[in-house]
Amino acid sequence: MKKKIHLIFSIILLIFLSSCAGYKPIFNSTNLQFNINDYLLEGNKQLANNFYSKLYNLSKAQKNNQSVKNLDFHISVLENKEATTKNTAGKILEYKITLNIEIKITDAVSDVEILNENFISSTTYKTQDTHSETIIFENKSIDNLINTTYQKLLIKLSEIIVAK
Questions:
Q1: Is residue 29 predicted with pLDDT exceeding 60?
Q2: DSSP tag of 164
Q3: DSSP for residue 27
Q4: Distances (CA, A) of 153 to 62, 92, 124
Q5: Which one of 32, 89, 103, 137 has the minimum C-beta count within 10 Å?
Q6: Which domain holds residue 63?
Q7: Cβ contacts of 37 within 8 Å, gap of 6 or more
Q8: How far apart are CA 90 and CA 159, in angstroms?
Q9: Is 46 among the domain residues?
Q10: What is the CATH number of the domain that holds 124?
Q11: Could you read off the pLDDT of 30-66 as tens digits, one per residue?
């Protein structure tokens, strides 16, 4: 009896797994065919450069294609860090980091503005026993916020570039 149940369960599981074959995501970053013609970084230059490098690496993969769009990027990153929780002695227990990333994208050929978006994201992190561990948590939080904003931008770009 147990063998029959295991066999039936295995067949059902196999059917479910094989039904996912051929899956293709709708918003795929390989469909984005653009070249960075010019760029301007403002605000926190280090964070803006970190964000720009992700875009540059994506555009570098499409350099051999002839049908790429030449785009100009204006990236402004503002960072705000504030204490959210303190103990009775006044020691900070938790910080909140907010990133405000403003991105303006224009077509380099026609000088038409393609995208003008302001992405605001924030997260909190707790202070650690040592200052160096707190800095590591802060840097990880900032990286997560940049990656989240980058993914949101890719969705917006795929809606604009692939749709045209």
A1: no
A2: -
A3: S
A4: 18, 33, 22
A5: 89
A6: 28-162
A7: 70, 71, 72, 108
A8: 48
A9: yes
A10: 3.30.160.150
A11: 566 788 889 999 999 999 999 999 988 888 876 666 6
Give the tens place of pLDDT for each residue, 146-163.
Answer: 999 999 998 888 887 765
**Quick check: helix, strand or coil at residue 107?**
strand
In terms of Cβ atoms closer than 10 Å to its own Cβ (0-12, 13-18, 19+), residue 22 is exposed
Number of domains in the chain: 1
pLDDT tens profile 87-118 = 888 888 899 999 999 999 998 888 888 889 99
Quick one: average pLDDT of 121-143?
Answer: 91
Asked if residue 16 is part of any domain, the answer here is no
Q: How far apart are the first and last CA of the chain?
A: 59
Question: Could you give the C-alpha distances from 92 to 86, 88, 125, 128, 143, in angstroms and in order?
Answer: 4, 10, 11, 10, 22
> Residue 14 is encoded by which pair of tokens?
């196999």
In the DSSP assignment, the letter for residue 32 is -
The secondary structure of residue 64, as a DSSP letter, is: T
Instruction: Give the helix/strand (H/E) hosting 41.
Output: strand 34-43
